[in-house]
Write a structure and sequence with these properties.
Elements lengths: L1 E6 L13 E4 L4 E3 L8 H4 L4 E5 L5 H4 L6 H6 L4 E6 L1 H11 L12 E4 L4 E3 L3 E8 L5 E8 L2 E6 L9 H4 L4 E5 L7 H7 L4 H10 L4 E5 L13 H7 L3 E3 L5 E3 L1
Parallel strand pairs: 3-4, 4-5, 5-6, 10-11, 11-12, 12-13
Antiparallel strand pairs: 1-2, 1-14, 2-3, 7-8, 8-9, 9-10
Helix pairs in contact: 7-8
Length: 244
């Protein structure tokens, strides 16, 4: 199964990274809809799309507006948007308010339940995360493979058991260790804490996303120190494609 990173930065886009969007193109599943979401049209292999939103901060939802034209043209046959009741209400009331976006896309809205069936006999589950305004993390399981997506929270948190043993953990890391105090203040994660979480949860591979857009350089987080704790770590880049 393929995973494509369409947006790997946080807060706002820069020349290197758009904001949060992960796509499983062959089964039509997207995790978050930040500015990187504009790439869905050219990457997806399905006419149906299920979008799972972690929370309603703009860098995770603004891309929903990008689907209007493809839907009106009939390129997308069905688009379902999943989130907590609070997240969906915020999107409909604010992002898609008539004063801001005058044509409501024909989305199907679904409040997250205990488990959501996925194509190929998979299942998505979720857990609440600690973040200003709230956020949730996702785990996607199929027979013989699994991934988790944890963003906008402060590692290590209380979710180690939720992600334990996954083949692929996609985790935010906005700050390097010398700015760990800012991670605590803003509800984000810093380098060592993410690496230690990955090691403690016995996951197989760690991919870091949601990095600070003020740092478009090759190593904004100190990857040598992260890999000293958890060796199988990659800093995800926009358009990186992974088979898992």
């Amino acid at each position: 199964m393929r995973v494509v990173f369409l947006g790997t930065g946080g807060y706002h886009p820069n020349k290197r990274r758009h904001t949060a969007c992960i796509l499983l193109p062959d089964i039509g599943v997207a995790l978050d809809a930040g500015t990187g979401f504009f790439r869905v049209q050219e990457t997806i292999k399905s006419a149906n799309l299920d979008i799972f939103l972690t929370h309603a901060h703009l860098d995770h939802i603004c891309g929903l507006t990008f689907l209007l034209v493809p839907m009106l043209r009939g390129d997308m046959e069905r688009v379902r948007v999943f989130g907590t009741a609070n997240t969906l209400q915020a999107v409909r009331t604010h992002l898609l308010a008539n004063e801001l976006f005058p044509v409501m896309p024909d989305f199907e809205w679904h409040v997250l339940g205990d488990g959501v069936p996925l194509p190929d006999n998979g299942k998505l589950t979720w857990t609440a995360l600690d973040h200003p305004g709230g956020s949730v993390g996702f785990r996607l399981d199929w027979e013989g493979k699994s991934l988790a997506y944890i963003t906008d929270t402060t590692a290590p948190g209380s979710y180690a058991d939720f992600v334990r043993g996954v083949d692929m953990l996609i985790h935010e890391c906005y700050f390097p260790d010398d700015m760990a105090d800012w991670a605590e203040k803003t509800g984000h994660s810093s380098s060592t804490n993410v690496a230690e979480l990955a090691r403690a949860a016995q996951i197989k591979r760690l991919y870091i996303v949601h990095v600070d857009p003020q740092r478009p350089d090759d190593d904004p987080l100190g990857m040598k120190g992260i890999r000293a704790i958890f060796a199988n770590t990659e800093l995800a880049e926009d358009l990186m494609e992974i088979e898992f």
